[in-house]
Write a structure and sequence with these properties.
single chain, 22 helices, three-stranded antiparallel β-sheet
Length: 591
């Protein structure tokens, strides 16, 4: 891709983001504008803003990359991401909006009257948001490196600076405007190139997505490696080499053709090396990637991706994404910006429609990438399929413009999601540590953005969708039980909620850390750590229910009845809308 067009696309996104942020700053007069946009956001714009922040790097890049490498089993991610909003609609949306809370820790204290539960919830908000932010920043670095060749840390730094600046300047009011705009940009950026990709696939004879063995190059293909790559060859193949392969340097040209037969096994090529594969040659894959081969790509539960227990992994992914959605702090804070519970329900329905339309598209990129850009399996950069496919399939200026449009959509995905996460963490930090002032919110925005930036630049990380899936697992194991039981079971006690949050969230967080440190493994121990939701979610529910039953004497029936009535009575029947947020008060004072 032309680096100039890539930088131009990035500049357009950043300038538009800054413009909406400045406009939001002009509208942000009161403290409530910073926290919940004064609860005046319409359902349609709120749904677009939710789609803007929810469709993250995992949605824009990661889903396509996983489908390309591992096949139909990876559809569990988009299915779970979308269906999670149906669970949210049925169980949480309207009662949470009517609760009077405006952050998750605030809900915890309002419902249970416990400062200790509030503090644990605040810590978990930060942990989940940072786990979610790191792959956003890493995705930004990967995108900028792909389109311009800049170091990966550059993209992460650019997005972090812009996001912190917008959040600090105008708070929720600015972020809502930014994210609504960026949803429509993302949808356009991923939908328009799909039309040309399908036409290119049909003009190539509509080659099959699966073959009898490993993927093969459709025609003669030159693969230029930016960085050193260690890759595995499963079927011997003869290639032409210009550069360093397996420690030996080959020069290009007729006098030194550099023709090499790669035998079965592991090989290493240095950065700057060019490998020319003949048409029909089998595609090697990056060491550790283990893509699906043959019909296993299209067969569910085939063990694609080296998963030793595919049925367990599939159900655990679905459980994490279905239940984790309701525990994501940057998603839940959106329902506090609706005028009332009815608007919250309408917002959620609109979100389901928008997400369903969007998630059809990354799947197409993943499927077509297998036949149109199989070299990404060799480099291991399957997460870049959405960025590179348009230019690979469309020659000339048209392909470069489509690639620039995809780049703009990718940066919109990073900026919008990172903005929502930063605002959610800043709101919690400001309310709990800095007295809930506008100045405190701005300082908290800086606190929210720096740790994930450090982590993103210091580590290589997991595939984008996998990394975000682990954040969903922590959310499903902590806030999902708290919200479901807190809203629908009056018997939940502060002690039960506290120990359940620590048990579920703590175990899931430990599994995330161990997975990130040790990398992919095999056997049941690896499966349980890589996809922990299937056992950490039941543990959290069981601990909350059991401990609550053992500590029923800690319940205050009058206080519980008051909060439960507020959550479940419609606004026109209850006492009217909850007050807008200002400096944080205790639960007793708000009552």
């Amino acid at each position: 891709m032309n680096p100039g067009l890539g930088l131009a696309a990035l500049a357009v996104v950043l300038v538009a983001t800054a413009a909406f942020g400045i406009y939001g700053l002009r509208l942000s007069r009161a403290t409530s504008d910073f926290y919940v946009a004064s609860r005046e956001v319409s359902p349609l714009w709120n749904a677009a803003a939710i789609g803007g922040e929810y469709l993250s790097a995992a949605s824009f890049l990661g889903v396509a990359g996983l489908v390309m490498a591992y096949g139909v089993d990876m559809l569990a991610y988009p299915v779970g991401y979308t269906a999670g909003y149906l669970v949210l609609l049925l169980l949480v949306a309207a009662p949470l909006r009517r609760s009077g809370a405006y952050t998750l820790p605030d809900f915890a204290e309002e419902r249970l009257g416990s400062v200790a539960v509030r503090r644990v919830a605040a810590v978990l908000v930060a942990v989940i948001a940072w786990l979610y932010l790191v792959p956003q920043l890493q995705g930004a670095g990967l995108t900028l490196e792909t389109v311009t060749g800049a170091p990966r840390w550059t993209g992460a730094l650019v997005v972090a600076v812009v996001v912190v600046g917008v959040a600090a300047a105008g708070g929720m009011r600015s972020v809502t405007l930014v994210q609504g705009f960026q949803f429509w940009l993302k949808l356009t950026a991923i939908a328009v190139p799909v039309v040309f990709l399908v036409l290119a696939w049909r003009s190539a004879g509509a080659p099959a997505l699966t073959g009898p063995d490993v993927p093969r190059f459709h025609g003669a293909t030159v693969v230029r490696l930016q960085d050193a790559v260690r890759f595995d060859v499963t079927t011997p193949v003869t290639v032409r080499v210009s550069g360093t392969l397996d420690g030996r340097t080959y020069a290009a040209g007729p006098a030194a053709p550099g023709t090499v037969t790669l035998g079965k096994g592991e090989h290493t090529a240095s950065g700057g090396t060019a490998l020319t594969f003949p048409g029909g040659a089998p595609v090697p894959h990056r060491h550790g990637l283990t893509p699906a081969t043959g019909a296993s790509w299209a067969n569910p539960l085939s063990g694609a991706g080296g998963r030793s227990h595919p049925l367990y992994a599939l159900y655990s992914i679905l459980l994490a994404t279905l239940l984790g959605t309701m525990g994501l702090p940057h998603v839940l804070v959106r329902f506090y910006t609706n005028p009332d519970g009815r608007a919250a329900r309408r917002t959620t329905l609109l979100v389901l429609v928008l997400l369903s339309a969007f998630y059809l598209l990354p799947t197409v990129y993943g499927a077509l990438g297998r036949v149109l850009a199989p070299q990404l399996l060799l480099t291991g950069q399957t997460d870049t399929a959405v960025l590179v496919l348009p230019q690979l399939t469309q020659a000339g200026e048209g392909g470069r413009l489509l690639a620039a449009l995809a780049t703009a959509g990718a940066f919109a995905a990073f900026v919008s999601t990172a903005s929502g996460l930063t605002v959610s963490v800043a709101g919690v930090v400001s309310q709990d540590l800095l007295h809930g002032s506008k100045r405190g919110f701005r300082w908290a925005s800086l606190v929210a953005g720096v740790p994930p930036l450090v982590m993103a630049t210091a580590t290589d990380g997991l595939p984008v969708a996998d990394a975000i899936g682990l954040a969903f697992a922590v959310a499903a194991s902590s806030f999902c039980p708290l919200l479901v039981l807190g809203i629908w079971w009056r018997g939940l006690t502060d002690r039960g909620a506290l120990l359940g949050l620590v048990a579920g969230g703590g175990l899931a967080a430990v599994a995330v850390v161990l997975t990130s440190v040790r990398g992919p493994g095999s056997g049941w121990s690896a499966a349980l750590l890589e996809q922990p939701a299937a056992w950490t979610v039941p543990v959290a529910f069981a601990v909350m229910v059991t401990v609550s039953l053992l500590t029923r004497h800690r319940l205050s029936p009058a206080a519980v009845d008051r909060v439960m009535l507020r959550m479940h009575l419609p606004e026109e029947v209850g006492s009217g809308p909850a007050p807008l947020p200002g400096p944080r008060a205790s639960a007793a004072e708000r009552a």
